[in-house]
Design a protein that fits this description.
It comes from Thalassobius vesicularis. The protein is of the alpha/beta class. It contains eight helices and eleven strands. It has one domain: Rossmann fold, CATH 3.40.50. Strands 3, 4, 5, 6, 7, 8, 9, 10 and 11 form a nine-stranded mixed beta sheet that branches. The radius of gyration is 17 Å and the shape is globular.
């Protein structure tokens, strides 16, 4: 990882260093952060935090939330620490594998746990040329393990939130039902008339409410890309530019 770029999120309210040729964060971690209903004084843990975009967006939106990140790849963890310092965020980053948590993480519980697990199975399709990007997009840790670790680290009545591709929803739901309740699923509709590709899904530790499928959230207006300007619906523009919370 030699060449870096500094990119704006939340309309420049959060500025993040990330690799030019490795895994680069886009809208997904911003949406993940916006969906976490944290309050000042609470704590949050992001599993697989990368360079820290979701954690930093959450820390900016909810001042007073103490955020902890766990990242497997040392180079990305180092960038997350740099980004935390330069953004003045209450964001502590640990380097380690979620299958063997660092002691500082394993001994704690958090009000909220969030994660953007790899979207693809390692043995499905062609891997990315950059090793960091390949691991971020196609890790070999089962989704069930992500759910197990997230649920254990979540405090009673706390929330666990994931963003994931639609085709992996059955796998994710199956794992969540063994450890969490009050599960809610929010489809993200890319454009009018198109099926969702991603979903936000949240469960509550010790929750007892029935499963809820929420109305889909439209990301881009119209059926085709508009020339010029930002191509987001007003709700998504408020999230992407202003750091607003998602109606989840």
């Amino acid at each position: 990882m030699t060449e870096l770029s500094c990119n704006d999120f939340l309309g420049g309210k959060v500025r993040v260093w990330q690799p030019v040729n490795g895994y680069r964060a886009g809208l997904d971690p911003v949406l993940l952060a916006a969906s976490v209903q944290a309050k000042p004084g609470q704590s949050a843990l992001e599993l697989g935090c990368g360079v820290g975009v979701a954690s930093l967006c959450l820390a900016w939106r909810v001042p007073g939330v103490a955020v902890t990140g766990l990242e497997l790849q040392p180079e990305y963890a180092d960038l997350a620490r740099r980004n935390a310092v330069e953004n003045g965020a209450d964001f502590t980053v640990h380097t380690g594998d979620l299958r063997a948590l660092p002691e500082a993480v394993r001994q704690r519980q958090f009000d909220h746990v969030l994660a953007n697990p790899p979207y693809f199975l390692r043995d499905a399709g062609t891997g990315a040329a950059d090793p960091g990007r390949d691991l971020a997009l196609g890790g070999d840790t089962p989704l069930a393990t992500w759910v197990e670790v997230a649920a254990k680290r979540c405090a009673p009545r706390g929330t666990v939130t994931f963003i994931q591709r639609v085709e992996r929803v059955p796998e994710l739901l199956s794992a969540m039902y063994t450890r969490l309740g009050s599960i809610e699923l929010l489809p993200l509709i890319p454009r009018e008339g198109r099926p969702p590709q991603l979903v936000l899904i949240r469960g509550r530790k010790n929750g007892r409410a029935p499963f809820r499928m929420l109305p889909g959230l439209l990301v881009h207006p119209g059926e085709n890309h508009r020339d010029g300007g930002e191509d987001y619906t007003p709700e998504l523009r408020a999230v992407q530019r202003d750091g607003a919370a998602l109606p989840f």
